[in-house]
Amino acid sequence: MDAKQIEGDLALDQTYIAEADIQARLRELAAEIARDYEGEDLLLVGVLRGAVMVMADLARALDRDVEMDWMAVSSYGSGTTSSGVVRILKDLDSDLTGRHVLIVEDIIDSGLTLSWLTTNLRSRKPASVEICTLLRKPEALKMVVDVKYVGFDIPNAFVVGYGLDYDERYRNLRDIATLAPHVYA
Ligand code: XMP
Ligand code: MG
């Protein structure tokens, strides 16, 4: 799905970050990551389901060998706000002992999910745990989360596409778009 569908969809407002800009930024982040982890083994941990697209494109932009593993977590709490109480729906298959772990996320909103997740992964005796997120909403942050790699800081609006959903829709949009206010207002 691309921008033409966005124009014809009343639920979507406008393209916010175009496909080409996402890909260009991911190539920059991949170059930084390759430099920072040179000579080390690297395990990318993707957070299902939103991070699927970021993982696929970031991993392929890296000019080096990496392993990929996946976790699925759910935040208890009402609807659109996360409570910080997180439940593991699918755990990693890998043992993290002594490994360099890079968490790959689509978006950091309140920061509660990633704050919990980094604490959890750090308890498994890895060599290091860092975070790479495509998007971050600085205005929404409730927890201080130390994020090493950020694609774009964005205002506190609801965005969809490139893995991000509204009620499971729009994940396969190639661009990132804002949701029309009438949809969530
Ligand atoms: P935290 O714990 O940082 O949770 O509040 C981040 C999770 O909230 C979801 N989220 C969004 N999903 N568009 C989305 O499609 C958004 O604008 C948005 N903001 C937050 C998402 O699941 C993320 O992992
Ligand atoms: Mg997510």
| Net shape | globular
Strand content: 25-35%
CATH arch. level architecture: 3-Layer(aba) Sandwich
Structural class: alpha/beta
What is CATH's topology name? Rossmann fold
The strands making up the biggest β-sheet line up spatially as: 4-3-2-5-6-7
Q: Major sheet, described briefly?
A: 6 strands, mixed
Average of per-residue pLDDT values: 92
Are any ligands bound, and if so which? xanthosine-5'-monophosphate, magnesium ion
Number of domains: 1
CA radius of gyration: 16 Å
Q: Calculate the terminal CA-CA distance, rounded to whole Å.
A: 25 Å
Per CATH, the class reads Alpha Beta
What string gives the helices and strands in order? HEHEHEEEHEEEEH
The unreliable regions are: none
Total DSSP helices: 5
Helical residues, percent = 25-40%
Number of strands: 9
Give descriptors for this structure.
185 residues; alpha/beta; Rossmann fold; 6-stranded mixed sheet; 3-stranded antiparallel sheet; 5 helices; 9 strands; 30% strand; globular; binds xanthosine-5'-monophosphate; binds magnesium ion; HGPRT; EC 2.4.2.8; Hxn_phspho_trans; nucleotide-binding
